[in-house]
Amino acid sequence: MAIEFKRTKYKGGFPVFWRGNREALPGDFTLKGTYPEGTLLKEGTPIKLDFANMECKICKSALVVTGGSTSAPRVVKGSMFQIGDTVKIGESNSTIKSIDTTSADYDVLTFAAAVTGATQGATLLSDDDLPDAVIETTKEYTTKHGLPVVSAAYGARILKDVAYPVPEAWLEGYSLKNNHEIKYIRQ
What is the 3-state secondary structure (H, E, C) of 69-108? Predict the structure, then answer.
């Protein structure tokens, strides 16, 4: 009789935080906004904190890639945008009517009206709020056990090429504009 070993493979990835170091704020923050059950809220995702109410919201961005149009641009996969979200580039804005995720290479965001400047290389933003923290630990979004909460890191060295994309407008040098303790580095 031989021993039979079972293998389980897990999808891996490079860590977001350099050397795993980050400084977490005490307590959790209730996440504003709605996401599909099971959505992964990944560590290093930029958030805006509301200390008075112990709430936070994800600061969403998406890089427009080649193809598509100003009313249905292709964007890099992995943005946290949802149907009904407002998107903007400068003063031009619209609402997301649908999201097509069938391509392995990009997502297509279809807007209610064209957004001027939604062309290759442009960054779509959810609003004018600048992030001041990041999600500290990857967590699955669920409302089955009460309000969805996340832990927030106020200090971290984040590997820029691995983390949720951060537009240059949110940075001052290689630090977040609203929190210089969060630095985006390359290794």
Answer: CCCCEEECCCCCCCCCCEEEECCEEEEEEEEECCCCCCEE
